[in-house]
Amino acid sequence: MNVTLSDAIKLTMQLFALLNVAAFGAISLVWLERRFLGRLQGRPGPNRVGPLGLLQPIADAIKLMSKEDVAPGTSQRLLFYAAPILVFVPSFVVWLTFPLARDVVVRNLDMGLFFFVAISVLSIVGLVLAGWSSNSKYAILGGFRAAAQLVSYEIPIITMILVIGMLSDSLDFVKVVDAQATVPFIAVVPLAFVIFLIAGLAEVGRTPFDIYFAESEVVGGPFVEYSGAHWAIFFLAEYVNTFVVGILGALLFLGGWRWPFGADLPQIASVALLMGKAYFIVLIIFWIRATYPRMRIDQLMAMAWKWLIPLSFVLFLVAAFQLKFEWPWWVLTILSLGVLVVPVVVQSRKQRNPALALAVRYSANAVIVHAKPRPAAVIVDDVVATSAVEGTSA
Amino acid sequence: MISGLKGMMVTLRWLGKKNITANYPEEHLPVQERFMGFPGLLWDETAEEPFCTGCMVCVRECPTQCMTAIMHDNPKAVEGKSHRRKIIETFEINLNRCILCGICVDVCNFDAIAMSHEHELASFARTGARADLGLLLEQGRKYQAETSWAPKGPDRNVASVVLAKRAAAEAAKAAAAAEEKTSAETAVENTEGSES
Amino acid sequence: MTNEPQFDHVDMMLNMGPQHPATHGVFRMVLTVDGERVVDVTPHIGYLHRGTERLAEVETYGQVITLFDRVDYISNLNNELAFVRAGEKIMEVEAPERAQYIRVILAELNRVASHLLFIGTYAIDLGGMTPVMYCFRERERIENLFEHVTGARMMHNYMRIGGVKSDVPDDFVPWVRRLIGEVRMGVEESDKLLSTNEVFLARTQGVGVIDGPTAVSCGLSGPSLRGSGVAYDVRKDDPYEIYPYLNYKIPLGENGDCWDRYYLRVLECYESLNMIEQCLDQFPAGPIMAAGRRIARPPAGEVFAHSENPRGDLGVYLVSDGSDKPYRVKIRPPSFCNLVGLATMTRGAYIADAVAILGSLDIVLGEVDR
User: Fold this and answer.
1) Contacts of C262 (CB under 8 A, 6+ apart)
2) What is the pTM of this model?
């Protein structure tokens, strides 16, 4: 393979541009999340630093960089400082295969989807390392829990990616988007999108799955000993991951840069369309964050192993059948909706009805206190009627 | 699932609502009429002096002992311009200790103190929480100007009213004394007349 | 070959220290955990001790009312009511009817405000960050009314032994009627967002269960006790003020878990709003302060008065020696007594549940430590 100098320069520029796109995406998410959550809660969000608070992420970054770098005395120093990098680098490496438009991609691999899956799992190693190298029992607990959560939720994501791969007959991102020329896959397998979104939330560590580093719980999880710039790297990695979930959802389910306008758009418009869809998914993620409380770790794991994984396997089988028997695409929609409806109904019966029934019962079984008849109101004239002077001294 | 989605609709509906937040310090929310801010000493226009005579009832009754006061003889009383024989000389409130309870206002017999609407008194000076007589009078003046404060006992406390009442009482007394004198003279004349 | 472990089993001690976002104040909870399960809980209190009862021995009765504002700093008017009733009992005066109606209306509004704060902070303890904003919006409305009537949003110093400090403004009744409608909508909104949310149910149902007899023996009161099905409410069992003239319901729970305690407070909000409406319908004219001497110099003796606070049964035991300062004011705080049940509820639960259980007891450290 001949690598010329011009190739190397081109590659470097592409990587640099990619880094900027990813970083800018993450930073814009920081701003967008705080403003959007503020709007949902009736408050403005950041509005002091720069117009509309647009410079807030920069202010946050400066603050984090300027903090003192504290490491526990008994921690494994090399691993302690390597862990953030191990968490952060895979989030950026997966961007190599994401096409932002048909020809806007650094390296369009034939196995783009597989590459994504393989690289993104590496960040779990970084989290465990962060917890373990901190040499703090709370951090270790948090790290193990994080690892358990992330590994469990990898399975539904991988299965869904496989389903998409089957439906588009390729693991290449560009071919996946091309396969959605007429119908986006969210209409073909809506259940896959739901599973992907939930598992993606858990992968990123967002509410309702953020218990492993939640503030109001007992510990800060594997990040508890990190401060300043190192913590900023974890923070940035989380937002880059969120953006990745958004872009992946847009590419795999919402039709990428193609649907509904077709492939003849100018490149800028294609990129803008893809980014718009990605931000739309990201807004849904923020919306979920605003609404739901946090799940406990065992409930989270139960949800993964008892619900998401069986459902994803069932969906995989259904998609396989559809491909084998070559049914039209809307059959798959109906089947996957059917598969979606069953757990929803079962869960509603199990959990919603008890609470609603209890609510009604508590109201109905309340002890009723009846009013006694009131004696006629008496008005006394010769007493101070308005402001009374408090009798504390002569 | 359904309930959670209903909850998401509740959150989404707030997107259309206006912000509740008032952008402080550009936007100050108004306080109610009865709002109890830090105390202010009130000014008697008719005698150009504070209502406060320095009787120290408020100082004694304050739960946190945040006030100190010293009274002195009122020069205006000698001149006849005011009915207050003693007047306040210095008055200091430690705003860090004041708990804005309003007990000082309740016990004051002279309508001298009121809870003003001042509540934004953060200061950069280390002793910025010591409110002296000047600041307290200023707060009281502002309060009098901005609200419809009126003394609760004007015939006891407002100088012009009291002085007018005293003048009227003296005039009445003088008139009564004069009338008694004339009736006494008439009585003497009558007795003399009857004698002679 | 037996299956016994070859090493000693040591329980881990986990400290939820005084500085913690989820402990509702400065409260230290030392959990002894075995793996993920809590074996024992030792609460450490006293971080907010301010010497309220000692101060009450050197302050006059009027000044002690300001102290009571700050004992449970979220339900100020309810505290004032308890103390003022104790003072009236020992001085053998009765507040005129209009004053009693004003007191009950304000106390019930304060109950709604306190429960709104509970809903918001309980949600944010469990990770739901939105209800707190909605609930505080409604609290703002109620506090605006308090400012309009008493002059202060929180530390009102409004009730007096024998009545209230000043009459309500002229627009009180229409304002409160409007307020009831707005607050009811706000409570419904937070109710819809939270009460049947699946994640919330998973976090609170079946967690921190305590049954009726145990709850009674632990000394619980208020919604924490009624969640276990015990129908004890001071307004019903030892009625005071004008509560006998009101129609209301006292909701009871069945399971004694966190969700029950939470939902009862939501139901109590609705009930309080209904009670306020009835008070407004019955609102009489008249004086607002009892006749008699202004100086509170009660005869020597001792008296006990209690009232239903949003947190439970607040008791005031007042001993007078005949002077204008109380000899002793003993406060029976509901949160302090509710904390006794914490260990029973938390034993066997997960660490993450400790936060949920503590939140569901709705303690205020100002009351626990005084």
Assistant:
1) C118, C119, C122, C195, C204, C360
2) 0.89
